[in-house]
Amino acid sequence: MTAKPDLLTVAKLAPFLMEPLQDAFTVHDRLHENDAAAFARVAPHIRALCGSGESKVSAALLAQLPALEIVSIMGVGYDGVDVAACKASGVVVTHTPDVLNDDVADLALALALNIARRIPQADRHVRAGLWPQGPMPLATKFSGARMGIVGMGRIGQAIAQRARAFGLSVAYTARSAKPDLPYTFHDQVAALAAQSDFLVVITPGGAATRKLIDAPVLEALGPQGYLINVARGSVVDETALIDALQRGTIAGAALDVFENEPHVPEALRALDNVVLVPHIGSATRATRQAMADRAFANLQAHFAGKPLPSPVPECR
Ligand code: 8YV
């Protein structure tokens, strides 16, 4: 019997991924974080890494893993992985696109509806026994509004389809215009924001989009506008956002992701014109199972010498 390959996990993984991993690999569960001496002993033998969309795989970690062949990310985003360093050492990177498009798009619409119609605030109003004292302040109409989407990839397109079903007009910004799509393209995010009631961020994280949503963009979105972020916290300048929310520069924000997750600034938590959820875009049982299956399938294919189901674009 050949020995199972050694695999290091770089995130706390769900049991439905951990179990198949443990059957097929010798799993070292976050050993690099938990036990430096034990890690130093196994590091030369580690052939695979498995983590989540939020995992950090730095050049410094890679330098300690001379036998590494593959990094399998259970997530569509892989902005924490130093892909250039992986490629330089012949390490392939895989992720799990497509299977989460519906869930993330569903959440984007749910957040937009929640912030516009003030549903969490209304729930708190009823629970606090305030209804007998009078009605809630009137909310913002969602149907027929203007949505601006920052990032028109697979998930952006799923958001746009749902927005159209609500009678919203859709415009977008992306690296380049997509002439096949029936939506208005803006090459500047501030110009898009100026034309939007709901600005939805669904662009990859990483250096290219860091603080793309800054004070001038929020200024352009304006006092009737709402920001929805289902991408990465890094894409929004959180300090500028808090300032804009406090001053009424924008009407409100609904956020699934934050700059320093799982820590959310007290100043943001204290505001009433926000809806805050803890990075749950893909967090349904069906979708997380599909993501786990794909992350495992990528590893299995690699060690069976078969084509990889979903390498990241840079590794195709
Ligand atoms: C999850 C995500 O948070 O896919 C992504 O990029 O951010 C999320 O779906 C996570 O990666 C689940 O493992």
Describe the structure.
The protein has 13 helices and twelve strands. It has 316 residues and is an alpha/beta fold. Strand 6, helix 8 and strand 7 form a beta-alpha-beta unit. It starts with 5 loop residues before the first strand and ends in a 13-residue tail after the last helix.
Features:
7-stranded parallel beta sheet, 5-stranded parallel beta sheet, alpha/beta, binds 2-keto-D-gluconic acid, 316 residues, 13 helices
The hetero molecules present are:
2-keto-D-gluconic acid
**pLDDT averaged over residues:** 97
Overall shape = elongated
Biggest sheet record: 7 strands, parallel
Continuous helix count = 13
Strand content: 15-25%
Return Rg in Å. Answer: 21 Å
Helix content: 25-40%
Low-confidence stretches: none
The side-by-side strand order for the widest beta sheet comes to 8-7-6-9-10-11-12
N-end to C-end Cα span: 32 Å
The sequence of SSEs as H and E is EHEHHEHEHEHHEHEEHEHEHEHEH
Can you describe this structure in just a few lines?
It contains 13 helices and twelve strands. The chain is an alpha/beta fold. α6 crosses α8 (154-165).
